[in-house]
Amino acid sequence: MADLPTGFWSGWVLVMTLVSLAGLAWLVLSVHFTPDDEHTGTAEPVWDTDLREGNSAPPFWWFWMLLAAMVFSLVYLMLYPGLGSFSGLLNWSQGSRIMESYGAFEENFDARRAAIATASLTEIQNDPQLVATAERIFKRECAACHGPDGRGQAALFPNLKDIDWQWGGSPELIEQTIRQGRSAMMPAWEQVLGYEDIEFVADYVIALGAGAANNSRGQAVFAQYCAACHGAQGSGNPLLGAPNLTDNSWLYGGSRRAVIASITAGRNGIMPAFSNRLDAAQIRLLVALLAR
Ligand code: HEC
Ligand code: HEC
Q1: What spacing in Å lies between the alpha carbon of 174 and ligand 2's midpoint?
Q2: Who's near 28: CB < 8 A, 6+ residues apart?
């Protein structure tokens, strides 16, 4: 009732309630305590020869019952909201009840969350219940992109279950990836290199992936334009998210066509930041799920 639109309505409710109560009290008193001579003054009506109306006072225990009910109402109205915007001496409200149980919930789980946020990774990994929770979070927050089992999809979203980490696979770096997100900058080389050089360097890169470098023109282009990010040997640089090109795992596909497409148009994979969406415990669980 604290949200009545104006003070007038609050006063209205208050007056109506009190006047009704007072009216009721008067009625009860007048029924039970009318002086006897008023009763005897009028003749008792008799219907249908022997049906007497009976105007003697009602049984006295009714009076006590009604009195008790009215006292209860008054006490209730003093303790709980009911008289306009007066919130009652107990200050009870549905809203405050919800806040209370919410507070109790937070209190119960805050400690649990704090414990998870600082637990060691092996501790989490060895607790099937926590692993199940982590998997639920992954399904809800990450699976849309990385696939239900985290194995990547559509040659756009990386496999998180392989040993090949673009941005580093230490727990700290995985946590950084999840918290801050990552945006990869692989420039487009079409204007700089022209199609022919792109083909040469693509063949060089594919050969790197297969474990053997094969053409010197591609190698020269690589050394000049690509090594700054991918490393002289093509082994990648986690600081830039530049992937290792010497293994046989590909983010965007290892076919000649896919590699040429990566080099021609560039790639700008974006991993969104989750620091505002997940709390420390949830992030810790995910790190434990992904780190090995
Ligand atoms: C400015 C740093 C930078 C330079 C210079 C650079 N790359 Fe990249 N490259 C990246 C990054 C970062 C990625 C990852 C892109 C992503 O994740 O979306 C990438 C991805 C690739 C991929 C895709 C790998 C895969 O697994 O699918 C290929 C192929 C590639 N680069 C080849 C090259 C070649 C060839 C050159 C030189 C012509 C080159 N890059 C120059 C940063 C660079
Ligand atoms: C909107 C799609 C999307 C969502 C949702 C998403 N990711 Fe990613 N994630 C990506 C992309 C794209 C990359 C690759 C970025 C790049 O090319 O460098 C990535 C990269 C990563 C990497 C780095 C992989 C490596 O090899 O270094 C990790 C770790 C990761 N994501 C974890 C997660 C987790 C955990 C979640 C859920 C909390 C998540 N991602 C949700 C799109 C997404």
Answers
A1: 10
A2: 63, 66, 67, 70
